[in-house]
Amino acid sequence: MHDGGKILTGLAAFVVVAALPFWHAAIGGRSVKPEPKIVTQEKQCVASKEVMRATHMDMLNTWRNTVVRQGQRTYLASTGKTVTMSLSNTCMSCHPNKKEFCDTCHTYLAVSPYCWDCHVEPKERT
Amino acid sequence: MEHDRRGFIKIAGVSAIGLAGLSLAGRDGEAGESEPVAAGPRWAMVIDPRKCLKDDGCISCITACHRTHNVPSIPNARHEVKWIWKERFTEAFPDQEAHYIDEALTTRPVLVFCNHCDNPPCVRVCPTQATWRRPDGIVMMDWHRCIGCRYCVAGCPYGSRSFNWEDPRPYLASPDPQFPTRTKGVVEKCTLCEERLDKKQLPACVEACQEKAMLFGDLNDPESEVRKVLRSHFAIRRKPALGTNPAVYYLV
Amino acid sequence: MLEKALIGNRRYWGWIALLAGVIGIGFICYLRQLSYGLGITGLSRDVTWGLYIAQFTFLVGVAASAVMVVLPYYLHDFKVFGKITILGEFLAIAAVTMCMLFIFVDMGQPMRVLNVMLYPTPHSMMFWDMVSLSGYLVLNVVISRVTLDAERKGIAPPHWIKPIIILSIPWAVSIHTVTAFLYSGLAARPFWMTAILAPRFLASAFSAGPALLILFCVILRKITRFDAGSEPIQKLALIITYAMSINVFFVLMELFTALYSNIPEHIAHFRFLYFGLAGRTTLVPWMWASAILSVIALVLLINPKTRHNEKFLVPACIAVFTALWIEKGLGLIIAGFVPSPLGAVTTYSPSLPEVLISVGIYAIGVFLITVFYKIALEVRGQIA
Long-range pairs for C15-23 at CB < 8 Å and ≥24 separation? Predict the structure, then answer.
């Protein structure tokens, strides 16, 4: 092909740059798997750890719509427990350590949920 | 080559529209309002300006409301956010000519806030249903959905709504974590303390008033306090000719 | 055909660079607005809509005015407008784009704008406004593309474009009517709640838009080889004469109803505009300037001797456009909020960032017009 040398060189350069996050992390080894810290004595959340890890965003969205748009505040958890649907009052009562719990995973994954623009962060207990 | 490029762009455009359409079709609609209940409460308030302490400068109700709901106190009057405040009689009731009426009445402060109308013009104009009328009469706000177009502000005949012209957080010394703040770019107003009503508590303003100048109750219950007062006293509402059917009555 | 906009002389590229600079400044100001909030504007709790929404209201009229050349040509076979329908359609695209941009910069939460489509609300006029503006944009893009493409190939346009063009005619009327409905259904704002608002909008649209078109034709005659000819320009001038007369008549009707009924709520807004209220007279010089310009324009337009003479017609068109821009782009929206529903008189003047953002959006519109007209004239081989 015409200009084959330039094309292949360009493609190779692109692949290297695009794969930068992977090989840079492999060499540097600086990224650490996040370990959110549990500080509560409660043994069980409103759902299992696996379910919460995968779907807490959808659950919070559903809670938001149910509380705000339908005026319903009581939630029957799969564990049989009844809780009030509230991020600040229910979730944060067991997980007040936002920096060491919520933020560890969010920062690692470069996710910035804007809930905290309005929902007041609990004062971190030192 | 030219025709192929154009054809490619056409196909790409149609595909993008198709994908967008598919994603819209997959979305389930959320209920903006629950189905109307046959006979539930219809919340209303009766204010007695005659009992409101004029010279004392009492603002217990305003303080209680604004503290409970993290309403910021912004010194720049143009960016003011307020859910409840005092107006003079002539401003609160501009359609009531007050030429020879007792001055004591017309200079007394009148508490004004969202009227939670039966026929709210703000709800009619909101393009996203970020504000709607609940079956119990409360005109509610969803601050997650509001796009900040301020059409509802233009539509409200009572000036009850405030827009967040800037971030309110710097003006909140220590926000109450039990209730969210709002963010810049959304409209807010009194929500009749629906979160307190849910816990069987009275609205914060009603509870805070030392003079019992504010009554709260159910218009659908003929024996409620508000109905009894309205039977025995003459009461007016703000701008009734507009057909909004407000739920806040003022005893005169 | 887009590649035709990429070839040009130094003057062309200098003009593009200037526009890009103005757009860039506006964009930077918008970033500041995004980070601080709409408080960076001159708006307030009482005057919640200002320069942005007023420009959108005015430009919807300009966008609708394309129908003034499309209707005679396509519906009534009025061949005289044959050479300028494409200019009208391109003007419509630029104007509608500016409308949507002005609405976008006015939103408090612009990232959520699609909520209007995700949660359709038929009882809100703003929902229908978004539908009609988007539809009108799509219509004009398709129509101008297909007709210009056919002209480039030297063939007649495909037959299926005709019904689409016919559709654009009532659609043009609808975009402006829906925009008027945004205001004329609000019981809270007696200044706007008048049945004549939509007809007023249409009358001012059919004056301002064609006036701008005439000015474009005159400019194009100076800097390119495109000459629309005196016949289309004279026909447009006649349309403007009638439309402007009707518009002034409508304004006088509004004044009569307000002043004769003597209802304070209705009079107050007019008093604020023309005499000031509670010492606030910000808009008074503007409104009188608009009134004087309207009279001058009508005198020049109604008199056939001055209307036929471009030395007078061009200033008349400038006067029409300016007078109507003041009337709708400044007077109408702001006066709806003064006095407030509680009788408060709050001033409004746009802040510097607000003005720069607006100018930036106008620059985007001018940029689009430049690029589109360049393409159209290159296709016709009439550039220079």
Answer: C15/C370, C16/C367, C16/C370, C19/C363, C19/C364, C19/C366, C19/C367, C19/C370, C20/C367, C22/C359, C22/C360, C22/C363, C23/C360, C23/C363, C23/C364, C23/C367
How far is the CA of C139 from the CAs of B233, C170, C381, in angstroms?
61, 12, 26
Say if CB C152 and CB C379 are below 8 A apart: yes
**Which member of B81, B128, B155 has the closest CB to residue C121?**
B128
Give yes or no for residue C83 having a pLDDT over 60.
Answer: yes
Residue B27 has pLDDT above 60, yes or no: no
Give yes or no for residue C277 having a pLDDT over 80. yes
Task: Please state whether the peptide bond connecting residue C341 to the residue before it is cis, i.e. omega within 30 degrees of 0.
Answer: no
> CA C58 → CA B105, C41, C80, C203, C384, distances in Å?
45, 19, 28, 12, 33
Which residues 88-127 in chain B show a CB within 8 A of chain C? Answer: 90-92, 94, 121, 124-127
Rounded CA-CA distance C176/C197 in Å is: 10
Q: Which positions in chain C touch B98 (Cβ < 8 Å)?
A: none
Q: Chain A interface residues facing chain B, Cβ-Cβ under 8 Å?
A: 64-65, 68-71, 73, 88-89, 92, 114, 117-122
How many angstroms separate the CA atoms of C248 and C242, rounded? 10
In chain B, residues with a C-beta closer than 8 Å to the C-beta of C342 are 87, 91-92, 94, 158-159
User: Alpha-carbon distance C186 to C209, whole Å?
Assistant: 27
Residue B24 scores a pLDDT above 60: no
Residue C165 φ/ψ region, left for φ over 0, alpha for ψ in the -120 to 50 degree band, beta for the rest: alpha
B211-246 pLDDT tens trace: 899 999 999 999 999 999 999 999 999 999 999 999
> Are B109 and B49 contacting, i.e. CB atoms less than 8 angstroms apart?
yes
Q: What pLDDT shows up at residue A110? A: 87
Interface residue B140 vs chain A (CB under 8 A)? yes
| Arch. (CATH architecture) of B40-251 | 2-Layer Sandwich (3.30)
Query: Which chains touch A (3+ CB pairs under 8 A)?
Result: B
- Residue ranges of the domains in chain A? 1-31, 33-126
For B84, phi then psi, to 5°, come to: -145, 140
Q: Is the pTM of this model over 0.80?
A: yes
Shortest alpha-carbon distance between residue C343 and chain B (Å): 6
Instruction: Judge: C125–B145 Cβ closer than 8 Å, yes or no.
Output: no
Which sequence spans correspond to the domains of chain B? 40-251
Nearest CA to B198 out of B134, B119, B126 is that of B134
Distance (Å, rounded) from C-alpha A87 to C-alpha A108?
21
| DSSP assignments along C307-319, one per residue | HS-HHHHHHHHHH
User: What are the residues whose beta carbons fall under 8 Å from the beta carbon of C230, sequence distance 6 or more?
Assistant: none
